[in-house]
């Protein structure tokens, strides 16, 4: 084995490890592979960058734009809704029609876009027919994947396989070369799911059919009834005449106020600025046990003596003032988004803005260019902060500045933990004292020792004196919350939670979202959209606590409650997909015929062999934007840039495998193992390996890696390269076995309430059916010799 072969195999192995483990995002892995190949001389610089101009990459992004045009103008929706009207109410027929409808559209549209487009339609069918969504949504995802097998533009692996043949000096696949085997697999795969596979789907209604109504009921799915209770506001309550946001019921206790009952009238989904009145009964959703936490906080004894500011600067603890650098990456972000406390191990005491100190709700304050931050912490942490390019001008601060400029003494409180307090033995994090009224524990004085900037894992002890940053007058809020009277007996009818003005719906992150990995707190979701997130459904279970700090994932289902006009506004946001037709953004129906005509004009010259597909799709994408079927901004959003960078970055690895002889070496290994059993065994082995790899490796990257090995194997054994390449195209696109094997599978996971094992139960048998069809039928359509 030469050094070059060993080096390229090492890069191949490392890239597979990173793609499987997802330690690094897949597009970054691809770019690192590209760089390593160029720096080691395995490919020339021009070859390293050739992926970005490769016809396959161009075709992929152009097809994304064409698919977006059909989606945005409602062409796919029109077809889907028309066909689904024929389904009737029989489950077998409904599943069959959903899968075939999705399959036909996926032949010419991106399959993830098709799944997203039909998701609200299928949810409406679920509500109308009483069939649980879990019986319909996985067939929808699988139907869109099966449809992608039927044409050249149905899925990126098909395009990449055809391009690999062209690069190898062989005739590439034409637009409908995939159709014979693809249609057979789609029809028989649909029959399997409709007749057998649906019986393997979860029998539970994730939505647990209501005992009083035979349809999908979100209130039952998320078990809202079990977590709802009434809070009565006493006549002398300090909360009277305060707004809901001032009451801190949401931020402090994580309770959602769904309605206010006043004088026999119920105001549903009240605005945060709604004023509470004495005698109000608040209908809330959340953990009733949270009310007991108020009692533990109230056990803290507020000491009246003034705080010695020097306690904040004892020993190795210093206080300094710093400014944001002009090009700081933290501009426009909050301290919470930055994770400042955990990241730098320092407290932010105050933010000086335009000469005025800001001392409350600092975690959610968006940082601006002229802000100066007053920070407290160990000297070594402050020294490390000096070297951070996001900050500049870190200067020490005197006690007189803390008093006269920052007026810190006005917000410092001393709270003592009684010996009998239920807080003793709890860590600072468990006590949630940092959440209480936005207060922060700056220092713990224990046995004459001072623990400044205490670790969140520090356990509280009886007799501890806590120096906290907060407003003394806000302590009355705790008393007001403690005095609220809990009622759990006289709950109103849950069906009254919705009205013509107020709705309860689910939403998921759209395939084009930029919000994955961000929390509701970071998004300022409640303030921005005016909606309550009551629960998040993830991997088969509902999460209803600590939602503000849960990082959102693609595939999550969010239970939203609020005004229907706000829900419709959310439906127009490109980051969300609201799972009801009512809330969908109105398509540009007046452009539907134009988009369909453009798609026809793209396909016709390709079918006739007059124009290469990569030229036809680029012209079609330009016409889609030129005719205003899509705006340019929308066109950019419809392109799956991760897939584009992944393919462009990994293509040079295929070139390196071929140039160095590594592909030939791997192919000889395949031939030595299965070659003696004949061409069919070789094809079966290659297809099986591809199927297994789809569970771990992105399909586009998998095809790029497999293509040179398969081409070398076919040359060594004298097997038709077209037959083997068609086999890996079918296997790579049929990613049924796990939710992570394809975005379409993840998209339906939340709304369907699926668990990982549900995909194995249906996906593995379906994969075996498709595998058998490829092995049995493909040699007749594409002879191996």
Q: Uncertain regions: pLDDT < 50 for 5+ in a row?
A: 204-216
The neighbouring-strand order within the major sheet is: 3-2-4-1-15
State Rg.
Answer: 31 Å
The quaternary organization reads as single chain
CA-based shape: globular
Characterize the structure shown.
This protein is an alpha+beta fold and 785 residues long. Among the domains are: 220-297 and 480-487, Regulator of K+ conductance, C-terminal domain (Alpha-Beta Plaits, 2-Layer Sandwich), CATH 3.30.70; 301-479, 2-Layer Sandwich (Alpha-Beta Plaits); 497-583, Alpha-Beta Plaits (2-Layer Sandwich), CATH 3.30.70.1450. The chain is 47% helix and 14% strand. Strands 3-2-4-1-15 form a five-stranded antiparallel beta sheet, with no helix packed on it. It has a five-stranded antiparallel beta sheet with strand order 5-11-14-12-13, with no helix packed on it. It has a five-stranded antiparallel beta sheet with strand order 8-7-9-6-10. The longest helix is centred in the last third of the chain and has 26 residues, at 756-781. It is globular. The two termini are 31 Å apart.
């Amino acid at each position: 084995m030469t050094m070059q072969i060993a080096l390229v195999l090492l890069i191949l192995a490392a890239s597979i490890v990173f793609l499987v483990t997802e330690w690094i995002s897949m597009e970054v892995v691809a770019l690192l592979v590209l760089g390593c190949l160029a720096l080691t001389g395995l490919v020339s610089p021009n070859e390293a960058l050739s992926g970005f101009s490769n016809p396959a990459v161009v075709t992929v992004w152009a097809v994304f734009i064409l698919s977006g045009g059909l989606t945005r103008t409602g062409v796919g929706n029109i077809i889907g809704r028309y066909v689904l009207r024929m389904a009737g109410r029989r489950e077998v027929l409904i599943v069959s029609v959903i899968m075939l409808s999705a399959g036909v559209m996926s032949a010419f549209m991106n399959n993830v876009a098709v799944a997203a487009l039909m998701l609200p339609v299928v949810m409406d069918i679920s509500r109308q027919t009483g069939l649980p969504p879990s019986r319909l949504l996985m067939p929808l995802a699988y139907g869109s994947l099966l449809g992608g097998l039927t044409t050249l533009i149905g899925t990126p692996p098909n395009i990449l396989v055809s391009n690999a043949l062209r690069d190898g000096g062989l005739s590439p696949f034409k637009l409908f070369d995939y159709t014979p085997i693809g249609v057979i697999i789609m029809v028989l795969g649909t029959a399997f799911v409709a007749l057998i596979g649906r019986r393997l789907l979860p029998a539970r209604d994730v939505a647990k059919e209501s005992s009083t109504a035979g349809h999908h009921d979100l209130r039952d799915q998320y078990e809202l009834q079990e977590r709802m209770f009434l809070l009565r506001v006493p006549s002398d309550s300090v909360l009277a005449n305060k707004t809901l946001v001032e009451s801190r019921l949401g931020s402090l206790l994580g309770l959602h106020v769904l309605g206010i009952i006043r004088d026999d009238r119920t105001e549903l989904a009240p605005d945060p600025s709604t004023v509470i009145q004495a005698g109000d009964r608040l209908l809330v959703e959340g953990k009733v046990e949270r009310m007991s936490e108020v009692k533990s906080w109230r056990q803290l004894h507020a000491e009246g003596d003034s705080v010695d500011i020097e306690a904040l600067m004892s020993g190795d603890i210093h206080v300094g003032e710093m400014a944001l650098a002009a090009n700081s990456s933290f501009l426009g972000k909050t301290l919470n988004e930055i994770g400042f406390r955990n990241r730098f191990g320092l407290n932010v005491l105050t933010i000086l803005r335009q000469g005025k100190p800001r001392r409350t709700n600092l975690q959610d304050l968006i940082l601006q260019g002229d802000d100066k931050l007053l920070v407290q912490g160990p000297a070594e942490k402050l020294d490390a902060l000096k070297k951070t390019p996001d900050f500049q001008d870190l200067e020490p601060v005197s006690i007189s500045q803390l008093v006269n400029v920052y007026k810190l003494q006005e917000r410092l409180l001393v709270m003592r933990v009684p010996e009998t307090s239920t807080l003793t033995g709890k860590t600072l994090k468990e006590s949630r004292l940092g959440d209480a009224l936005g207060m922060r524990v700056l220092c713990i004085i224990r046995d004459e020792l001072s623990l400044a900037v205490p670790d969140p894992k520090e356990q509280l002890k009886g007799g501890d004196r806590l120096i906290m940053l907060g407003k003394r007058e806000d302590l009355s809020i705790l008393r007001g919350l403690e005095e609220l009277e809990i009622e759990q007996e006289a709950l109103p009818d849950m069906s009254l939670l919705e009205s013509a003005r107020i709705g309860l719906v689910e939403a998921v992150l759209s395939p084009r979202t930029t919000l994955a990995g961000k929390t509701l707190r970071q998004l300022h979701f409640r303030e921005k959209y005016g909606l309550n997130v009551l629960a998040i459904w993830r991997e088969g279970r509902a999460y209803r606590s600590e939602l503000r700090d849960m990082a959102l994932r693609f595939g999550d289902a969010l239970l939203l409650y609020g005004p229907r006009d706000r829900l419709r506004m959310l439906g127009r946001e490109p980051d969300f997909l609201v799972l009801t037709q009512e809330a969908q953004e109105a398509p540009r129906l007046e452009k539907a015929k134009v988009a369909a005509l453009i798609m026809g004009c793209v396909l016709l010259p390709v079918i006739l062999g007059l124009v290469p597909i990569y030229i036809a799709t680029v012209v079609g994408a330009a016409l889609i934007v030129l005719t205003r079927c899509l705006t340019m901004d929308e066109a950019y959003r419809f392109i799956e840039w991760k897939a584009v960078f992944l393919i462009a970055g990994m293509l040079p690895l295929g070139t390196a495998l071929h140039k160095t002889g590594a592909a030939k070496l791997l192919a000889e290994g395949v031939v030595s193992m299965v070659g003696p059993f004949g061409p069919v065994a070789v094809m079966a082995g290659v297809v099986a390996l591809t199927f297994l790899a789809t569970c771990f490796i992105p399909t586009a990257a998998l095809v790029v890696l497999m293509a040179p090995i398969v081409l070398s194997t076919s040359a060594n054994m004298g097997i038709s390269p077209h037959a083997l390449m068609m086999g890996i195209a079918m296997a790579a696109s049929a990613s049924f076995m796990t939710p992570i094997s394809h975005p379409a599978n993840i998209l339906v996971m939340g709304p369907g309430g699926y668990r990982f094992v549900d995909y194995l139960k249906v996906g593995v048998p379906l994969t075996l059916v498709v595998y058998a069809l490829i092995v049995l039928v493909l040699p007749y359509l594409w002879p191996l010799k």
